[in-house]
Design goal:
The chain has about 70 residues and is of the alpha+beta class. The chain contains 2 helices and 3 strands; from the N terminus they run βαββα.
């Protein structure tokens, strides 16, 4: 499960790939190669932030890229 809905609502998204057994490094690199801004926290986790200027289409594009990378 990549989303913990019990956490407070915020514009910061942390993605923990640890439960999937996947290393975040190649996922991070693949998203950056698609011009999606993301920060790697450690070997298992990455962080993304929405802010002014980030539109729904941008979020949808990031999610589509993430789905493709994880497929």
């Amino acid at each position: 499960r990549l989303v913990d809905r019990s956490l407070p609502l915020t514009n910061v998204v942390q993605i923990d790939f640890g439960a999937t057994g996947r290393d975040a490094t190649p996922i991070f690199a693949a998203l950056q190669a698609r011009q999606i801004r993301i920060r790697q926290i450690d070997a298992a986790r990455c962080r993304m932030v929405t802010h002014w200027g980030i539109e729904r289409d941008d979020v949808d594009a990031a999610l589509a890229a993430l789905r493709e990378i994880l497929a």
